[in-house]
Amino acid sequence: MSTLRFKALETLPFKDFRRDNSVEVPGKLSELFCQNVFSEETMREYLTKEAFQSIMDAIKKGTKIQRHIADQVAVAMKDWAMSKGATHYTHWFQPLTGTTAEKHDSFFTPIEGGRAIERFSGNLLIQQEPDASSFPNGGIRNTFEARGYTAWDPTSPAFIMGTTLCIPSIFISYTGETLDYKAPLLRALNAVDEAATNVMQYFDKNVTKVTPTLGWEQEYFLVDSALYQSRPDLVLTGKTLLGHSPAKGQQLDDHYFGSIPTRVMNFMKELEIECMKLGIPVTTRHNEVAPNQFELAPMFEEVNVAVDHNSLLMDIMARIAHKHHFHILFHEKPFAGVNGSGKHNNWSLATDTGENLLSPGKNPKKNLQFLTFFVNTIKAVYEYADLLRASIASASNDHRLGANEAPPAIISVFIGSQLFRVLEELEKVTEGKLSPDEKTDLKLNVVGKIPEILLDNTDRNRTSPFAFTGNKFEIRAVGSSANCAESMTVMNTIAAKQLIDFKKEVDALIETGLKKDEAIFNVLREYIKQCKSIMFEGDGYSDDWAKEAKKRGLNNLKTTPEALKQEMDKKFVDLYEEIGVFTHREVEARNEIKLEKYSTVIDIEARVLSDIARNHIIPSALNYQNRLIENVKGLKEIFPDKEFRTLAKEQMSLITNISENVSKIKLGVEDLIKAREAAKAVSNSQKQAETYCSKVIPLFDVIREASDDLEMMVDDELWPMTKYREMLFTK
Ligand code: ADP
Ligand code: MG
Q1: Ligand 1: which residue has its CA nearest to atom 13?
Q2: Residue 516 burial (10 A CB sphere; 0-12, 13-18, 19+)
């Protein structure tokens, strides 16, 4: 047997090393923590007091680091990195390709007399110029200004990977436009810090900084490397384009939280050791719903660092999986009919006085503060739901959203019945000044009734794309392969805008003579009235919800092209400009990049599917059909006519059936090629993406159905593609 499938399968049962690649945790995990990070503690050891203070100020207050200090930091970083065996350094950044980028340079510098030294300067630390002309830029950098530069982000700590010192950086064009995920994120984080700190002055004047926090949960699949290599669709598109679902999938729910297979456990252990050393505080690991699907989650961190840690994690996961003969799949829907993967983004706001602003407090005063941030978040999502939807849009996530396993593409907010009742009470507050009785009643019976710890008793509605879970909001619709920076940029931008507006409205009411609390109650009441339509407590997977949402006027942007079209709405572009996150040109460029990426992904899938169908599926089906024909001919030779007709009946019907499916595939491929070419010729990016979406994608199903039918007919020994049951159940 010569197909890739059989070669791959042959390697499986005998390779004991795949199971025995055992990993021992050296000592306590806590002792490994931040070993390879230029952490606060390390900086304290390696830096002068002045330099240390300067970095801390840059992190906490956003102050600039002076050139002579940067020189000191560079030398300290180099000395520390070399003490850990590093020989190279790189600016580590996150271009819009979706992966991380690095270009290693050596510390080694030749000097006169045939000698050499290790050198690293402040200039090199602060700014570098990668030859970046082939990173996506949405037309911002034409060939005349092809250069971009990377700039050190001192708010995320440097770390060592292998023998390279990695310096987290942002990536911008020479004309100042952002070309990466991080630069706009940092702008949004600053904006929300300022807006939330201003609002906090109503409640606690000691607060001087508000830091958004992010705790992501990463889902993924593991597939044996050899089996992965045997599937051209997985290798080229990250997902299977064909494949009949196995007789046993996730029906028995026996994988979720089940015992972790030994080989996977070894992978996880090694991964955790690596995460610890890199300062990624992973705490949770478990099996997910689908076979061979798993999840990993860390302790939450401030958003910027959490985003870097997630990107870094995805990179090291792939490498470590490889060592354990696995390939890791981050695609949102690698297997049809099997649950896909997401990346929940848990978001909150933390003050420099140690408070979580989305955590209900111990007394009415604290709870008014909680309600302020809680209601403002809901209002922000209500106003900018489409923008949030656009931030999670991708060709791969489209397969998952609304597929009855992930939140629908309709953005709604779930807050749980207890808080829903509190908001209903607040809605009844009288307009303008409150009577003393009303004030007391509000404080004692409404605000005062918010249970201190909601954490355990908020209902956990898993079908909501945006859910309050006791002390944070959880954005559930983010795709597993996404860079969290995108949804976090939107989340923090809209929160900033909303808090700015809130402050203005409250201040205006105070000017008219209302007391602060009265003004706040008045504004919150109006917000609750306005955004009630986005609050939904029921089953987000149900068809009834889609109908109800339509009645409520909520958008259901089912596909990426629809979501991306909405992203260019003037309201959203103005918002970005007002908050200072993107210029009009930047929004346009990013929108263009995402549309192009969408079309390219579908185009590649179409080509791969056509190739597999013609080169693998049709020949194998014909091969098997020939066997059947031989069989029928043989029967005809040895049996009299009448008996032959009965005996060959089933074979004949199979032969016909195979021909029908082969013909469906052949014609399907011809249609697909034509549709693909037509889509490719469309010049407007928005129109092109829409054409791929409406004209190309539906043709995939025709081919797939026929091929999956054939998979059930053709002799297993002749089938060329590794099957779902083989990929999903190898341990
Ligand atoms: P579940 O799977 O039920 O959603 P987990 O405990 O797996 O719950 O995940 C909760 C996530 O929320 C963790 O990643 C955790 O770090 C994060 N988290 C907890 N508190 C906060 C917070 N204040 N801000 C941001 N994320 C938080
Ligand atoms: Mg969760």
Answers
A1: 215
A2: middle
Res 14 pLDDT > 80: no
Q: Which atom of ligand 1 is nearest to the CA of 214?
A: 25
pLDDT class of 143 with cuts at 50, 70, 90: very low
pLDDT recorded at residue 253: 64
Q: Which ligand is nearest to the CA of 211?
A: 1
Instruction: Compute the distance between CA of residue 23 and CA of residue 320 in angstroms, rounded to an integer.
Output: 12
Q: Which residues surround ligand 2, an ion (CB under 5 A)?
A: 217, 344
Alpha helices for 428-482 (secondary structure H): 436-441
CA–CA dist 443, 454 (Å, integer): 18
Q: Which residue has the tokens 């830096």?
A: 47
285 and 270 Cβ atoms separated by less than 8 Å: no
DSSP label of 84: T
Segment 453-475 shows an average pLDDT of 78
Contact (CB, 8 A) for 336 and 240: yes
* Listed residue (235, 222, 197) closest to 293, CA to CA: 222
Is the pLDDT score of 727 beyond 70?
A: yes
C-alpha span between 629 and 535 (Å, rounded): 62
Q: Burial-class residue 528 by CB neighbours within 10 Å (0-12, 13-18, 19+).
A: buried
Interval 161-203: pLDDT, tens: 999 999 999 999 888 889 999 999 999 999 999 999 999 999 9
CA of 454 to the centre of ligand 1 (A): 14
**Mean pLDDT value across residues 231-242:** 97
Mean pLDDT in residue range 447-453: 68
Report, as an integer, the average pLDDT of 421-446.
82
CA distances from 632 to 248, 439, 624, 640, 641 (A): 34, 90, 13, 13, 12
Where does residue 715 rank: exposed (0-12), middle (13-18), buried (19+ CB within 10 A)? Answer: exposed
Is there a contact between 210 and 192 (Cβ–Cβ < 8 Å)?
yes
pLDDT at 1: 46
Q: Which two tokens stand for residue 424?
A: 């209903």
**Rounded to the nearest whole angstrom, what is the distance from the C-alpha of residue 129 to the centroid of ligand 2?**
39
**Tokens coding 695:** 């004209």
Nearest ligand, measured from the Cα of 284: 1
Using a 6 Å CB cutoff, which residues line ligand 1?
213-215, 217, 284, 297, 299-300, 344, 346-348, 356, 471-472, 474
Q: Which ligand is nearest to the CA of 281?
A: 1
What residue's CA is closest to ligand 1, atom 3?
460
Helix (H/G/I), strand (E/B), else coil: 139: coil
